[in-house]
Amino acid sequence: MIDLLIGEFKRTWIQTRRYPAEVIGGIVILTSVFYGIFVSSQYMAGPTTNFGNRLDAIVVGYVIWTLVLYIVNDIANNLQLEAQTGTLEQVFLSPFGAPRVFLARAVASLTLRLMLIMIVMVIIMFITGSQLAFPVLLLLPLATLLLSAYGLAFFIGSFALVLKKVQQVLGLFQFVLLFLLLAPTETWVGGAKLAAYMMPIVPSIGLLRDLMARNEGLDWGVWAIALANGLFYFTLGTLVFRWAEGKAKRQGSLGGY
Amino acid sequence: MMPSDLSVSVPPSVFTSSVSNSSAPLSVPLSLSKPALESFDLRKSYGRGKRRFEAVQGVSLSISAGEVLAFLGPNGAGKTTTIKMIAGLVRPDAGWVKIAGADPHRQPRALTGVGAVLEGNRNLYWRLTPMENLEYFGVLRQMRRRLARSRGEKLLAEFGLSDKRNIPVQKLSRGMQQKIAIAVALIHEPSLLLLDEPTLGLDVESGETVKRIVRQVANLGCAILLTTHQLNVAEELSDRVAVIRAGKIVAEKPTQALIQQFSNGAAYHIEYEGVLSEEAAGAIAQLGATVKAQKIHYNPLSQGNAQSDKLASSATLYKILNLLAPLPLLSVRQDRADLTEVFLQLTQTPSPDSHGSDTLHD
């Protein structure tokens, strides 16, 4: 399994390194979009407005949105791309089994993506003057966020496996995610708060905003909810993925595109 | 034509060296080992209701270690669906597959010994170099990375691609990509190799390289299931042929036996030296043969002999030879069908449904 993980790291790294224009383009676009949002907000609020930690909260929300969007699209996009290039069936011929291979791939590409996100975040902080905190404890909600996000990724990947064309769904899904990740759900109360806890990713993003933007401590009770949320969506995603693999094999459509 | 002796000497290569390093008992007589692949009564339908289409209808195949089975059929006959069912990529509606005794649909370890080139060169990461592809796919087949690299080096040398090892696959020619796809399928020394059109689009030299390697791999005990529309390649490489038509196997026999069966009743050609007496020439003509410039042509079918009536045609041939005595004979040969003729006869006659179970088997 370690060899598989290293193999996936190497494959992802080489493919990324060989086409640096894609990476540079990604950094420029991600930064420009945020700068567009920032400048628009500043225009609406007036030039003298100080956003304070609300700016930091939005920076955290935006950065996490780009990360989650990448994760959720990653498996589905790769499945479609590999079906077209013909490598998908070779992957399914691996004795490791498809879920383990795709998990190793996800971990490898996430590591590289985190590097990209860090660069974008530093540029945004430099441009906007945002001052985010990076306590070690943020790794805990980040882990639950990743669990939940990969659950979603496997879920969407399942549709890619069975239905093949999910580009339109992915396009719409990014706006749903934008709402989920930018809305300050941690300040909601009553039934809305309960609903927010049950939505994928949402409990973790609230905790990240508390830690990174508001300089608050980790609410362990909410983190336990975030952990349960992450485990639930990850388990659900992988189970649905296994079902989709069986379905695609019954349909004879595994390598189709 | 296929060489009659399959025990061709194998030059020192990645395949021979791998055997010497391996603890696998490849010296065991291959015919005594259990089948590398068994499939029984595989069935697969697509669609529902009126649009239901039975792609594969009860296909059973068995390949022993070291055997090459050419799986032939027209487009849409069910070859690819069958191969994908064998590889665990398409789930059969009924029937089962065993690879070295394990079911690839239930036991992923069954795939450990499977190598496949499913759709030509569409099996590679185009941004990676040949060496990087070989290493990656070796790891994907549960090899250690170092071992995958060293075997990859040897395979590239075997395919004559060592100088291309560091060039991204997308910049190589189609033939080179095809050879790399085959090398990738061999990286983990599979016991079962599934090759879908391995020589399609290759130039003559590349085609010969692929054929040589297929033979070498088979000689080392790998069972090979080969589909191709290049019937000369199938005839040259295969020990056995299975012809599928409309989802059913319509013939399955050793390649040479099948060709021989379709050669029965074909014309004889006799060449002799000296001058044939008019009396003997007349008697030979009476037997239905034609005599012309020290050559005799005899076609049993033109004399009304049934295709299977070998004895009658042989008896006539001996009478002709007796009439030629004592003139020296230069050659006696019979026209021989090739696999193309066999294939066309098997696939262009009326549908097998109209013949019930009229199939050719051992």
TrEMBL record, chain A:
Domain ABC-2 type transporter transmembrane, by residue range, is: 9-210
> Which GO cellular component does the record give, naming just one?
membrane
Q: Which domain of life is it from?
A: Bacteria
Could you tell me which InterPro entries the record lists for this protein? ABC2_TM, Nod_factor_ABC_transporter
Q: How does it sit in the membrane?
A: Multi-pass membrane protein
Protein name, please?
Answer: ABC-2 type transport system permease protein
Q: What UniProt keywords are attached to this protein's entry?
A: Membrane, Transmembrane, Transmembrane helix
MF term (GO), any = ABC-type transporter activity
Where would you find the membrane-spanning parts of this chain? 21-43, 55-72, 110-132, 138-163, 175-200, 220-241
Subcellular location(s) per record: Membrane
Primary localization class, coarse: membrane
UniProtKB/TrEMBL annotation, chain B:
Source superkingdom:
Bacteria
The membrane spanning regions, by residue number, are none
Which UniProt keywords are listed?
ATP-binding, Nucleotide-binding, Transport
Please state the span of the N-terminal signal peptide per the UniProt entry. Answer: none
- InterPro entries named in the record: AAA+_ATPase (IPR003593), ABC_transporter-like_ATP-bd (IPR003439), ABC_transporter_ATP-binding (IPR050763), P-loop_NTPase (IPR027417)
List, alphabetically, the Gene3D superfamilies matched. P-loop containing nucleotide triphosphate hydrolases (3.40.50.300)
- Domain spans labelled ABC transporter: 37-271
Q: Do you know which PANTHER family this protein is assigned to?
A: ABC TRANSPORTER ATP-BINDING PROTEIN (PTHR42711), ABC TRANSPORTER ATP-BINDING PROTEIN NATA (PTHR42711:SF5)
Q: What is this protein called?
A: ABC-2 type transport system ATP-binding protein
Q: What is the lineage of its organism?
A: Bacteria, Bacillati, Cyanobacteriota, Cyanophyceae, Leptolyngbyales
